[in-house]
Every structure is written in C-alpha cells, then in structure tokens.
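User: structure tokens for this one?
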Amino acid sequence: MTDIALDPRLTEDTHPVTELPLCQLRLMDDTRYPWLVLIPRRHNVVEVFDLDDADQQRLWREASLVGRALKESLGGDKLNIATLGNMVPQLHLHVVLRREGDDAWPGPVWGQGQAEPFDLDALAAMRDRLLALIDGIDELRGS
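Assistant:
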C-alpha cells in the first residue's frame, strides 16, 4: 500500500490507531466525542471523486464498518460521517459518534467549544479499545 505524507494539521490534531486496507485510521485528539478520521493512502487526493471507483467503494466500506463497530461498542444516538476539507484539503473522512446532550448536540462538532485532549493513559486505553474493535471486523482484520 502507498505511504503518503499527512497534512500537518492532521498530524497535529489526531493520533494514529492502525492501517486499514485503504486508509490510515486516526483518532481525533478530543475526548468529548468518539471521533475517528480515515485518510486514504493515495497521493494527490482532495475529493472523493479523485479516487478510482474501487477505492471510493473501499473508503465507504471502511467508514461503515468502523462506524458500526464504534456505535455498537460505545453506544450512541447517531453516527456522523463527513468530509469537509475546507481547512485541510487532503481527503479525510470523519466518523463521529454522537450522543444526545454532548457538547455540540444537535449541531455539528466542528468549531464547537475547545477540544479536550487525551492524557497518555486515556489515549492508550482508547487506542487499545479501537484496536480490539478493528480486530473483531473480519473484513478489516490482518490489514
């Protein structure tokens, strides 16, 4: 699979979790929301249509599988999946588990309040939990 350089803002705002068949999976550094970011390992990709058809399908499949596992494991009221790219042009897909009454409910999480970064122990625990979830998804195992 192709290695790519990450936009510096993605590096600053997220923590690596694992590599999926197409995407690098990262955790947003904000404890207020279970918030993952999938970044396709393809060069010069800004929009979903910059991916070929197979990679477009793979991106959606990875987001759906990870999102379902996140929602089933952590519980929540709604799963938000979105690409924005207004500030970070490199294609990345947000997968955010929402709960009624969270800090931004019912609005979007972007630009709401101040991020609450993970401490090292909480980050390790969340990363371990996410890795266990990914390991439980047959289609993503061994990637």
